[in-house]
Amino acid sequence: xxxxxxATTSLNQWQLDFVGNLERCKKSILRAKLKKAKYRVGPELxxxxxxxxxxFLENDTVTHxxxxxxxxxxxxxxxxxxxxxxxxxxxxxxxxxxxxxxLNGKVLFLRPKRAVAGDGNYREPRWFTAWRxxxxxxxxxxxxxxxxxxxxxxxPIGDAYLKFENDVRLGCETxxxxxxxxxxxxxxxxxxxxxxxxxxxxHHQLRKLNQxxxxxxxxxxxxxxxxxxxxxxxxxxxxLYYDGCALISLNGEILKQGEQFSVEDVEVSVARVDLDxxxxxxxxxxxxQVEMAGKKExxxxxxxxxxxLCDDDDMNLGEARLSRAIEVRYHEPExxxxxxxxxxxxxxxxxxxxxxxxxxxxxxxxxxSTAAIVGxxxxxxxxxIEDQATNSITSTNEVEAECRRICKFTAEESISPTKMANAxxxxxxxxxxxxxxxxxxRAKDLAEEVGAKHLSCSIDTVVAAIVAFxxxxxxxxxxxxxxxGTNAENLAMQNIQARVRMxxxxxxxxxxxxxxxxxxxxxxxxxSANVDEGLRGYLTKYDCSSADINPIGGISKVDLKKFLVxxxxxxxxxxxxxxxxxPPTAELEPITKEYIQCDEVDMGMTYDELGTYGRLRKxxxxxxxxxxxxxCGEWSSADxxxxxxxxxxxxxxxxxxKFFFYYSLNRHKMxxxxxxxxxENYSPDDNRFDLRPFLYNVKWPWQFQRIDAMVAxxxxx
Length: 717
Description:
By secondary structure, the protein is α/β, with parallel strands linked by helices. 41% of the residues lie in helices and 16% in strands. Helix 2 (59-74) links the parallel strand 2 and strand 3.
């Protein structure tokens, strides 16, 4: 038997936080050692943090990363374990995203990333170059800060693997490489490498975990091996939430799975595997044996390491049990919504220096979902405090310390989710004459259930003052359409209310801590516009969609409605069920017996339709003509689940053209959209994910003429 104990990690690293990153890195190594591991892998670009973005172009970032390597080299506590970490490296004048292997104060090997991620949220080619020299090793001259430690001048760099005593072979790939058609793990396995690691920086997206798990399982299902997946965790300073979930698989089966959503900064998952099981697995497939034996030159180069990665023979027999397969845990999408944005918000709150959150709570689906997510955050933090108190291997309860600091709890005070919410979460209902008593009551009831401090007030005096000022300056008084006003007047009267709410929200956020006698401090304003409203542009520029952060801006209305039903039971906020049953309305126009404003009527399309348009536009990459063609087929028959009748080509054309008109007309709003938690693959976020112009010819003359011609042809048949 060649038994090895290996460890993978999920670390809540923070871009350019070199002190904190080093501390968390060291802590994970020590925990791995405590669990008898002789190899530990960390996330991608672990030492700098993954999200440095253009700071990677600064040489200081590279220098500081090497200074952290020096700290790892000189720490005597970190001996007798192979440390696999990540950092930016400049070799021959080219910047690479590298894995670095360290053992007993010596740099063993640098392995540059062969395939850099440049799609969706990722911009790695802007900062790094992919290593294109397959199966080539070169010499890297170590920087002075490292040479000064033990006199090591150079180390190998390139595409290779490590070969330890007992012919134990360890190779690696980095994040994106797992997703490529010709992933490195394939060739490594065919060259006899048993252990393959992956230090990753992979973000959360609804319903994405199964894809990641499938790839990791399949990496060793055909060709055998032990695969270790390490991932960043938390908010690294941007819109993404890295969702951890470190994994260890063996011969196509998952042995260990870390938490996907957690507020713990350091998590270490350890497995004990017999490498001879891999040899037997591979030997049982004759065709694989032939392929391994007949590998063409050049063979994979390796770096020989004088170290025994196998467990010691004198290990206590009680500790000698091998790790066996487990069932992978998946969260329902509703639970992902409850946990992912909540953990992201917790990181943002504790790292921003803010005292808490302020939410304009309207009693509608979007702001109620946001309030529920804050409540979920408080529940997650309190559960983590309880778990750390029970299971922690140290006397320091880090999550509890952060909670007491932010909430200003004394060491003797008890902590509960509602008490925590009361300390850091404020909500305000900013009503007008157009607001209903139903929404006012739902806002109050939900705030009480979550535990928030709640204010309810009318903003009519402020709105009236602005209208009066405009009338004084221009001599004209705008009116709602219901009272004889034009469409322009009607829209302006709605926008005044919406924008006043934004101004008042920031005023309350800045001064409520002062009102309550707190020394200093400020509240972060939470936005609550969903992804579909951003896509359609159904929001007022600089209204309550303008905030400090928005936890639901990447989530569809359809998913939010399901989340409300789920949260009423699972989060313990029954008012959410009432919110879900209410028709969505902005409540910006006067309410009469004959007229109540409705979002879907205002938009001229349903939220189900918006989700379809969004997926076809972004994920399907369809323009107006191709989208029309696709939907003519999909909508030619009725769909009772979407409450949609069968549509003729002319009806489909009207819907598609209406969507593209409003989408392009309102695209400029995305340039000012609040930083939003990324959760949906059709997000219209202009900042980094959906890069498009914001000035269009909204008539789409060429495209719409093509659609009209196709409709005419279909009707003539």
